[in-house]
Amino acid sequence: MKLSWGSEEEAFRSEIASFLDEHTPEQLREGRDWIGEEADEVPQWARDWQALLFDSGWMIPGYPPELGGRNATPLQTLVYQEELAARGVPRSVHFGGYGIVGPSLLEFGDETQRQLVPAAIRGDTVWCVGMSEPDAGSDLGSLATRADLDGDSFVVNGQKVWTSYAEWAEKCFLYVRTDPTAAKHKGISVLILDMDTPGVEIRPLRHITGNAEFAEVFLVDAVVPRSNLVGELNNGWRITMGSLAHERGGLWLEGVGYAQRALDGLVDLARDRGLDSDPVVRRTLGELYEEVRSIRALGYKGFASFAQGSSAPEHSYMKLAASELRQRLNEFGMDLQGAYATVTDPTLAAQGGRFQAAWQMSLAATIGGGTSEIQRNIVATRVLGLPRG
Amino acid sequence: MVDFALTDEQELLRDTARSLFTKECPPALLRDAFYDVTPEGPAAARSFYATHLREWAALGDGPLVDLALFMQESGAVLAPGPLWVSSSWALPLLRAADHPDADAVADGSLTATVAVADAAGRWEPGDHDESWFVPHLEEVDRVVVVRSGPSIVVVDAAEVVGAPIEALDRTRPLHRIATASGPGTAITEVAFRDATDRATVALSAELVGVGRWLQDTTLSYVNERVQFAKPVGSFQGLQWKLVDASLHQERAAAAVAYAAMCVDADDADRASSVHVAKAAAGGAARHWSRTGLQAHGGIGYTWEHDLHLRLRRAYGGDHLLGDADWHRDQLAALLFD
Ligand SMILES: Cc1cc2nc3c(=O)[nH]c(=O)nc-3n(C[C@H](O)[C@H](O)[C@H](O)COP(=O)(O)OP(=O)(O)OC[C@H]3O[C@@H](n4cnc5c(N)ncnc54)[C@H](O)[C@@H]3O)c2cc1C
Q: Does A363 contact B at CB distance below 8 Å?
C-alpha cells in the first residue's frame, strides 16, 4: 500500500487541467452540478464543447483517438475524471450516448452498428435510453414494450417513461420484449430506434425543478428494421446489465467531486454568514468532510483492486453513499441560510442559489439509475452475501 | 389532566372543514394557479378565500385548538389564500391594539398580513426600513407592521411598495416591503408573544396537515404500486423508512395539539410546547417530503404528481417564523437559562 501519483499521472493532470482552464465554455464555468438544462434542442455551445473534447482526445481518454480518446491508462482516466468533477464540468449535457450507448454498441453491436459509436460519443447524434416503463421501474425485467418480428422488421408497441433527453434525441437505445412466452429475463432484446419513425410520440415531463428534461415515449406500430437489433434476439438482458454497469461505473467520481464542491461551498457559506466559529456548524462540516473523504478513499480502493483485475465490491456502495451524501450536503447549505433557505432568487440566495437548485436536482440521484433501496438490496445480497428476501 | 379526545363540536368542525376542502379545493386548483398556470387558475385561487374561507376567519378569535384543527385540514390540501396569516397572526395583533379593523378581519370582510422580520429573517419587532418575508401581500387588504416598542402600524396593502421574493413555494408568495413609518399603536410585549405563539402553532398545524397528506398519499401509493410482482410497500427496506417518517409525523401531530392546549390554558409548558411543536412539525413535514418522494420513485420527482407542492410547502413552512434549528436553540435556552 502506498500513495503516490507517478510523474506520468501528474503530467497528465496538468495537461487536462490546462485544457479545461483554457477551453471550458462560459456556460459551464459556474459548475454544472446545479444548473438544469431546458431548451428545445441541444445548445450549440454544448455541441461544440463535446465535439472539441472528442477531437482533442479528451472525451473518453481510455479510448483510441478515433473514438474520442488517447489510449489513456485507467489511472489516467481516474485523474481525468477527478479534474472534471472538481470543476463541476460535464463532458456533455446528455449522458446516454457516450455513457451508455457507445460502450454497449462497442461490446454488443455488429460492424455497421459500431460505426454509430463515434457520432454517439462526439454528440453529433443525440441518443436517449429507453429502459423504464410505467410498470417496469426497479423491476426492469418486467418491461412489456412489444417488438414483434414481421419479415425483416420489428413492429414495436408500448410505452417508455422518464426517458431523459427524448425530446432532443435522434436515436433511442430501446429495450423491448421479443418473446412474451419466455421467462422474464429471457425474452428481452435491444433495438436502435430512430426517433422520427412514424408511430413514435413524445410527451415531455417536468422534473421537480420545473425543467422538462425527460419524457414519456409512446410507440404505436413503429417499424424498426431487423438490422437494428443489437446483439442476439432475446439476449438483451445481458446488454441491460452492461448498460447499468456503464451508467454506474464512472459516476462515483462525479458524485464525490460534486460532494467535495458542495462542501467547499458550505465552508464559504459558513464563513460569509459568520457561522465559522459556531460549534454545531463546525462539527457538522467536520462530519461531512469525514464522509466525503472516506467515501473518496473507498472509491480509490475499489478502483485499485479493479485495476489489478480483482472484483471491487466497494463500487456497489459508491452510488448509494455519494447520492445520499449529496442530498444532505445541499440541504445543509439551505439550512445554513436560515430564513433564506428556500429562497431561489439567485440575487438573494447565497452563492447564486446553488444549494437550493442542487438540492432539488439531488433528489433524483437516489432514484435514477437504480434507487437507493435497490442499491441496498444489491449490497445485501452480493456484498454481504445475505439470502434474498 | 390532558385529554386529546375531540369534543363533538371539534369533531364536527374537523369533518366540516374536511368535506369543504375535499369538495371545493381539488388538486387542479393549485396546480393550475401556481404551476401549470392557466388563465382561470390564478383567479380561482384568488377568490378561494372570499368564496370559501371568510366565514372561518373568526376562528382566529377563538380557542387555538379549534384553529389548529382547521389549519391541519387546510394544510392537507394547501388551500389557497391568506387565512393563516390573517386569522392566526394579524387578528390577535389588531385585537391587542384595539384596532378598528379587527372586527372586519374577524368576520372575513377584510384580510391582513403581518410584516415583522428584518432582512436577516429575525421575527422580532424592530425599526428596520424593510420588512421581509411578508406572506400573501397581494391577496390582502391590510398590512400590520410590527415595530419596536412593540407597536403596530396598519397600512393599506394597496399602498405598500413591495417586491416579490422568488422562493420554492409559489403557493405562499412572500414579499419584501418598505416599512411604514408614522405613529404606531403600542401593544404589550405579552400580546406580541401571544400573537406569535398563535401564528406559530397554526403554522405548525398546517405543517402537520402537509405531513398527513404526504403520509396518506405515500401509503396508498406503495400499496398499489407493484414491482417484482408485489406491492412495493411489502419490501421491508421501504417499510422501515415509512415507519420512521410516520413516527416523526405522529409525535409532531401530538406536539401541536399539546401546544394548542397549552396556549389556550396559558399553561406553564406554554413556551416550550410552542417551540417543540414548530420544530417537530417542520421536521416531520420535511422528513415525509423526502421519504414520500423516494417511495414514489420517478413520478415523485415530477410535476405530474402533486407531491412536489407539499415538499415546497414543507420546506417553506419550516423556515417561516423560525426554522427547526432556531426553535431548538430556544429550547436549549429554556433548559439552561
Ligand atoms: C431524473 C431521472 C432521469 C431518468 N432517466 C431515465 C432514462 O433516461 N431512461 C430510463 O429508462 N429511465 C430513466 N429514469 C427512470 C429510473 O431508472 C427509474 O425511476 C428507477 O429505476 C425507479 O423506478 P420507478 O420510478 O418505477 O420506481 P419504483 O420501482 O416503482 O419504486 C418505487 C419505490 O419502491 C422501492 N422499491 C422497488 N423495488 C424494491 C425492492 N425490491 N426492495 C425495496 N424497495 C423497492 C423503490 O426503491 C422506490 O422507493 C430516470 C429517473 C429519474 C428520476
A: yes
What is the location of CATH 1.20.140.10 in chain A?
Answer: 252-383
pTM, two decimal places: 0.96
Other beta carbons less than 10 A from residue B166's beta carbon: 17
Average pLDDT for runs of 10 along chain B of length 337: 88 97 92 80 85 96 98 97 97 98 97 97 94 96 96 96 95 92 90 98 98 98 98 97 98 98 96 98 98 98 96 98 94 95
Q: What is d(CA B219, CA B224) in angstroms, rounded to the nearest whole number?
A: 9
Interface subset of B 298-317, CB within 8 angstroms of A? 298, 300-304, 308, 311-312, 315-316
Nearest to B325 among A335, A367, A373 (CB): A335
Question: Among A165, A192, A164, which Cα is nearest to A176's?
Answer: A192
Give chain A's largest Cα–Cα span: 73
Q: What is the CATH number of domain A7-93?
A: 1.10.540.10
B303·A340 Cβ contact <8 A: no
Q: Is the peptide bond prior to A225 cis by the omega test (within 30 degrees of 0)?
A: no
Domain coordinates of chain B in residue numbers? 190-336
Residues of A in contact with B325 (CB under 8 A): 335
Q: For residue range B213-232, list pLDDT tens digits in order.
A: 999 999 999 999 999 999 99
Inter-chain contact B301–A364, Cβ cutoff 8 Å?
Answer: yes
Chain A residues with CB under 8 Å of B231 CB are: none
Pocket-testing residue among A95, A129, A138, A190, ligand 1, by greatest number of atoms within 8 A of Cβ? A138
Q: Which residue has the cell 397600512?
A: B155
Tell me if residue A82 is catalytic: no
Residues of A in contact with B303 (CB under 8 A): 205-208, 210
User: According to the CATH classification, is domain A127-236 in 2.40.110.10?
Assistant: yes
Flag whether residue A208 sits within 8 Å of chain B, measured between CB atoms.
Answer: yes
Q: Which helix (H) or strand (E) covers residue A328, if one does?
A: helix A314-335
Q: Could you tell me which of A77, A35, A12 has the C-alpha nearest to residue A253?
A: A77
Distance A357 CA to ligand 1 centre (A): 21
CA dist A219 and A159 (Å) reads 6
Which residues surround ligand 1 with Cβ inside 6 Å?
A 129-132, 137-138, 162-164, 214, 364, 367-371, 373-374, 377; B 225, 227-228, 232, 235, 237-238, 294-295, 297-298, 301
Number of Cβ atoms within 10 Å of the Cβ of A375:
21
* CATH code that applies to domain B190-336: 1.20.140.10
Q: Decide if A343 contacts B166 (C-beta within 8 A).
A: yes
Pick among 3.40.640.10, 1.20.140.10, 3.30.2130.10, 1.10.3980.10: CATH of A252-383: 1.20.140.10
Please give the pLDDT value at position A241: 77
